[in-house]
Amino acid sequence: MNFSYTRATTVGDAIQAVAGDPQARFIAGGTNLVDLMKYDVERPGRLVDITRLPLKAIEQTADGGLKIGALVPNSDLAYDARIERDYPLLASAILAGASAQLRNAATTGGNLLQRTRCYYFYDAGVPCNKREPGSGCPAKTGVNRIHAILGASDACIATHPSDMCVALAALGATVHVEGPDGARVIAFEDFHRLPGDTPEKDNTLAHGEMVTAVELPAPRFGQNHTYLKLRDRLSYAFALVSVAAAIELDGDVVSEARIALGGVAHKPWRVPEAEALLKGKLPSSGAFEEAADRLLKGAVGHGENDFKIELARRAVVRALSQAAAGTPQVQSNKIVN
Amino acid sequence: MAQDARSASEPVAVTLSVNGETHSVEIPPSATLLDVLRERLHLTGSKKGCDQGQCGACTVLVDGRRVNSCLQLAVMNDGREITTIEGLGRPEELHPLQAAFVAHDAFQCGYCTPGQICSAVGMLDEGHAHGPEEIRELMSGNLCRCGAYTNIVEAIEEVRSAREAPTLKTPKLEAAE
User: Fold this and answer.
1) Contacts B56 to A, Cβ<8 Å
2) Regions of chain A where pLDDT drops below 50
3) B6: nearest CA partner in chain A
4) Residue B9 is nearest to which of A4, A31, A40, comparing CB atoms?
5) Helices (H), strands (E): how many in chain B?
C-alpha cells in the first residue's frame, strides 16, 4: 500500500481531487477498499478521505420519502427509527449482512460500491477480467459455488455481494451522485451493471463521481415484506441466494409485487414481467412459482453453482409466502418459516 | 502487507487519543490503526488474527463504536477517541465484562478475548441485544477458534441482564459469584 492521503473538507474539493487524478480514489468506511489494498487488488496512488464531509443526515423528502446521506453508517441506517418503522425491509437486509463491527464502519454509499467477493478477483496471482481486463476468467470452470446464474457473460460470472442493495432495488430507490460535470440522479436498476465485455466496471459512475445520497420513495408494503438470505453458515457470510420481496394487497388480491434477488448476478436481479405476473392474483404457491420461474428464466449454472437455480426458485416462493402472510424473516433467529 | 517498489509514502503526523491519553505519531498513511496501536504505542492487547476484518480479534471502540482496527487507516482516525482492552479495566478493578469472562471461563487460549470483550462492550452500549439469541447474532463478527462460544454468550448475557434490571446492578452480580 503506497499512496498519498488527503482529507477533503467539501464535496467539491473531494470531487476535484479525485477527478483530476486517474489513480485517486475516495475512501469512507474503508471496510472493502482497505481489505482489497492489502490483497494488492486495489492500488490507488492517492486516497481522498471523505469521512468528514456533511453527508451524514437522513432527511424527509417533499414526496414523503427519505434521503439518506452517503456517509450514514450501515448500522445507524438499520436502527434509525424511521427506517425501522417505514422501511423494515431495508433494515432487515442491512442486518442480514456483514458483522456489527463492519456495519458500524461501512457507509451507505460504500455499500453500493463494494466489489465482488469472487475468489479469483481477490487473488492477484491468477487471471481475472474484472481485475485485469483481457486476462481471462478462471471462475467459469473453477470454484464457482458463489457465482452468478443470471446475467453473466463470457468475460465474468462474478456477483454483487451486497444485501442492502437487494432491498434498495426492491424498494425502487434512486442514487444521487455528484461529479466534475455536476449532479445527477440514477435509478437503482441503472446504477449497477451487468459485466458484458467490460466487467472491470461494476457500475455506471464516471471517475470522480461521488455518491452523495440514496433516496427512498414514500413508504408502502406495510408488513408484507421479507428479506430471506440463504448462506453456508447462519451469520456473517455472503448470500448464496437472497430474496427481497414486498407485496401490496388490495383486499385479498395482489396489487403490486416487488422481487429482487441477491447473490445470483452482477447486480440485484429484478424482472418487472415476473412481478407483473402476480398482479391481480390471489397469493398462492402456484402464482408464486409462476413468478419465480419467470424471474429465473435463462438461469445458467457453471458447475458448482448449478444448485442455485433450484435454490433461488424455492427461496422466491418462500419469500413471497412470508411477505403475503406479513411474517418477515427474523434476522436473529434464522429459522425459516 | 506488501510494500511495492515505489518510493515510500510521506509520513503524516497523526494525533490519536487512546484510553484517554493523547499520542502524536508520524506514520505512513498506509498504517492501520491496529498496527499503530500494537507497534508504535505498544498496546498489544488488540490482536492481529486475520488482518482482513473477518475474525474480530482486533476490535476496538472508536468514539464508542466497535470497529475492526485492522481495516481502519490510523490517519483517518486523527482526533478520534480510541478505547482498547487496556482502557476498560485494571487487574485489580476489572470491567464487569472482564470479570464475567473470568467467572464463566469464557475463553481457552485467550487470543480472541480482547476483541470479544471490546465487541461486547460496544454491543451492550448499542442496546439491540435482548437475550442470548441476539447476543449470538450481534457477536458473530468475533470468532473463537477454541470454541468457547457457549461460555462467552453466558458471560455477556449475565452482564446484559444485570444492566437491564435496575435492581440487579454490579453489587449483586459480585455477590452471586
Assistant:
1) 99, 101
2) none
3) A2
4) A4
5) 6, 5
Q: Which CATH number fits domain A225-325: 3.90.190.20, 3.30.390.50, 3.40.50.2300, 1.10.8.640?
A: 3.30.390.50
Please give the CATH architecture assigned to the domain spanning A1-49: 2-Layer Sandwich (3.30)
- The one-character DSSP state at B147 is -
CB A240 within 8 A of CB A163: no
Size of interface A-B (CB pairs under 8 A): 104
Q: B19 in contact with A at a CB cutoff of 8 Å?
A: no
pLDDT in tens, B39-82: 999 999 999 999 999 999 999 999 999 999 999 999 999 999 99
DSSP notation for B49-115: SSSSSSS-TTEEEETTEEEEGGGSBGGGGTT-EEE-GGGT-BTTB--HHHHHHHHTT--SS-SSHHH
Other CB atoms within 10 Å distance of the CB of residue A196: 14
Is the Cβ pair B137, A104 closer than 8 Å? Answer: no
Cβ atoms B125, B83 nearer than 8 A: no
Question: Distance between CA A317 and CA A321 in Å, rounded?
Answer: 6
Q: Where are the domains of chain A?
A: 1-49, 225-325
Tens of pLDDT along B72-125?
999 999 999 999 999 999 999 999 999 999 999 999 999 999 999 999 999 999
Other CB atoms within 10 A of residue A182 CB: 8
Reading the block at residue A69, the C-alpha cell is: 446521506
Name B164's Cβ contacts closer than 8 Å, sequence gap at least 6: none
For B134, the closest of A7, A37, A332 (CB atoms) is A332
Q: Which of A101, A52, A33 is nearest to B138 (CA)?
A: A101
Does ipTM top 0.90? yes
Nearest to A332 among B76, B122, B137 (CB): B137
Mutate to test the interface with A, among B33, B35, B63, B65 (most CBs of A within 10 A): B65
Interface membership of B8 toward A (CB under 8 Å): yes
The structural domains of chain B, ordered by start, are: 12-87 (3.10.20.30), 96-176 (1.10.150.120)
Q: Is B15 on the interface with A (CB under 8 A)?
A: no
Q: What is the pLDDT of residues A292-308, one digit of tens each?
A: 999 999 999 999 999 99
At A116, list the grid cell: 465482488
